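Ticket #4471: structure export looks truncated?
Reporter: QA, pipeline team
Priority: medium

Steps to reproduce: submit the single chain below to the structure queue and open the exported record.
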Amino acid sequence: MDLGGFDPAETMGAMDLYNYSVINMTTLGLGDVRPTGHLRFMAGIESLTGFILIGCTAQFVFEVLHARDADSE
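Actual output as written to the record:
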């Protein structure tokens, strides 16, 4: 589809791509792998999605613990 690639342009296996995706979703940073072309935009969207999911999970956990604390009183 010619969306772009990764720099360095070495052969990346499925586990390398999974590792990149996990690092990007947790907003830790790209580090040794850098997207090129249109993949830069898609990596930004993936990072934003990960940030939102982490925030929603933290809010859910807080609400559950807060409700549990209120029930124990």
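Status: closed, not a bug. The export was complete when the record was re-opened. Leaving a note from the reviewer for reference: The chain has a mean pLDDT of 77.
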